[in-house]
Amino acid sequence: MIQISLSRRLRRTPFSEGVEAAGVAAYTVYNHMLLATVFRSVEEDYRHLKAAVQVWDVACERQVEIRGPEAAKLVQMLTPRDLRGMMPGQCYYMPIVDETGGMLNDPVVVKLAEDRWWISIADSDLLYWVKGIAHGYRLDVLVDEPDISPLAVQGPRAEDLMAAVFGEGVRAVRFFRFGRFAFQGRDMVIARTGYSKQGGFEIYLEGADLGMPLWNTLIEAGWAMDVRAGCPNLIERIESGLLSYGNDMTDENTPHECGLGRFCDTGTAIGCIGRDALLRVAKEGPVQQIRAIVIPGDPVSPCDRHWPVMAQGRQVGRVSSAAWSPDFGTNVAIGMVRMTHWDPGTEILVETAEGPRPGAVQERFWN
Amino acid sequence: MIQISLSRRLRRTPFSEGVEAAGVAAYTVYNHMLLATVFRSVEEDYRHLKAAVQVWDVACERQVEIRGPEAAKLVQMLTPRDLRGMMPGQCYYMPIVDETGGMLNDPVVVKLAEDRWWISIADSDLLYWVKGIAHGYRLDVLVDEPDISPLAVQGPRAEDLMAAVFGEGVRAVRFFRFGRFAFQGRDMVIARTGYSKQGGFEIYLEGADLGMPLWNTLIEAGWAMDVRAGCPNLIERIESGLLSYGNDMTDENTPHECGLGRFCDTGTAIGCIGRDALLRVAKEGPVQQIRAIVIPGDPVSPCDRHWPVMAQGRQVGRVSSAAWSPDFGTNVAIGMVRMTHWDPGTEILVETAEGPRPGAVQERFWN
């Protein structure tokens, strides 16, 4: 197994001490920041996430903050999703596209006020694109990366743990909404969002000083609920069909290819920079698309590069994420498949690390 | 020791097979790509780099390619360095700054032709900034990340190895110039550049198919020169004062703070987006600046976060990179120090991982 070299460039977070004390076994790097990937084992972490509650250091979901009179205009320029109905207090998942409709990021965007937004980014320096656009169009906005570090609480017992720390009011926060709750005298934005389908919240910690107090309070309050330090879990996220930018799609792909066409209101998202290109895609439809793929049989190795998807000796797609699912007793995978082979039930061959393995396109994801 | 979790998001390179076969011990992530940091040990790799020749997979130095009639104009917008005298065939190290003069990257830029440039980037998605600016200003250019993977050959015997593979003509390539040389029938740009002060070249491999053939040819041709797989070496780069973007500086810093004022022609770099802000800095001078710092005594641990630099009980700077130097018998470090304490010989206290250690500001770096 190969080590990770730590350096200041791979930034620590306000919660790193807690992650280390909990015995993190492996890291990845996400937005130039450390992100835990394993504590006990991917499978043990998975079982626990589905049964109890975990605290995740997802400070690597850095925020791009946009403030000013033209903030709303700028956010609409970034995405093909129609934002006219979005109210302060709401969170939207939105594809961010360039002028060709290529995906630059797929964040959750938090609308704090008409003139103040947070873009909670996936793994790319979206700040640079937003700053470049704001500058190039001479928009009346301020764009920067504030000192905000999200901490996620995920799992079936997440709501109980959050209520124990922030009060019963937190139970009233609806899916993809947020409220403000006090912790040690400071207000924090708390949203019912998160990178799992087990339910839960994300706490937007402003400033680093309360990082470890918040972490420790959650861990202590959750003792009777079997709380543990955790992290986004590869198996659970594939079962749930949660895409990972950089793994499952890149700026080569349109939202439509990623199955995100429902977030593209190309008829009404006036101002979106990629709109012209996406209108064309919406008319013609994509020629390849993300699919759930099942690979029966023995567990496959992790997918650290594209695995070609073959049929009749020709490449018809690629798998980008795969894991053995204990709950479903098979390998679950995410892939991009050409339209000739994307119908549910289509049999394909996946060139895994262990050689070609029969698989099939699924109608939907597992969770 | 903590492992790195491999995934498709941490991209492999055309040379990864060679790196693995050579027994890479640790990786970092750089531009969403794997970069080896250690083979035998940092110290053993260091001694070998200074004595022989190494082949480095630096494919993570991704290229931002700019083509079109307004390419030169766009490149000048990105940097305060005056590009009027730059000829095709030249490479320039250039700070890239935003509208406030904050550094977004510090690449080597290759001028292929008046209308075609490569920006060989440090660790940030500079592509997004360049695309945003090009789009916002409606410039007549194409901007993308082509499939180009640099491979470095570094060390005192680098020229001999390069001549053995590419012919004697490669010896005539001057420092920060490039030429075109054939390998297996394909032309490659080869520049006399690299992230060490031991001398050497960088080969810009276009297309991935010749990656392993090129790697293997260099390793085989260098057998008698004791060639090894290597990587940028922490000790050597600190001794040499080679800054690392994300470690030693970020977008918080101006080029002047980084000691890169000599690359800022704010009087003549007409069109540079950050020029107004940097004119102000140039007039007033920075209040903190990068310095070489010596920390005598026992070896310190790697610097994985900022170490405060103290004097008279107050913080006067921070160290961002540090390593034990066998050749100089002391710890060598890079830090940012306030003007009150930046004069050579000033004694300071560095709060290392092992606690406070006396140190001093040096006049210059070691190599």
CATH topology of the largest domain in chain A: Gyrase A, domain 2
- Give the strand content of chain A: 25-35%
Number of domains of chain A: 3
CATH evolutionary superfamily of the largest domain in chain A = Probable tRNA modification gtpase trme, domain 1
Instruction: Give the chain pair forming the largest contact, with residue counts.
Output: A-B, 48 and 49 residues
The Cα radius of gyration of chain A reads 21 Å
The biggest beta sheet of chain A is recorded as: 6 strands, mixed
Shape category of chain A:
globular
Helix/strand order of chain A, N-terminal first: EHEEHEEHEEEEEHEEHEEEHEHHEEEEEE
How many runs of DSSP E, i.e. beta strands of chain A?
22
CATH class identity of the largest domain in chain A: Alpha Beta
Strand order of the largest sheet of chain A: 13-14-15-12-4-16
The helix count of chain A comes to 8
Relative helix content of chain A = 10-25%
What is the subunit organization of this protein?
homodimer
Distance between the termini of chain A: 31 Å
Which structural class should the secondary elements of chain A be placed in? Answer: alpha+beta
Unreliably modeled segments of chain A: none
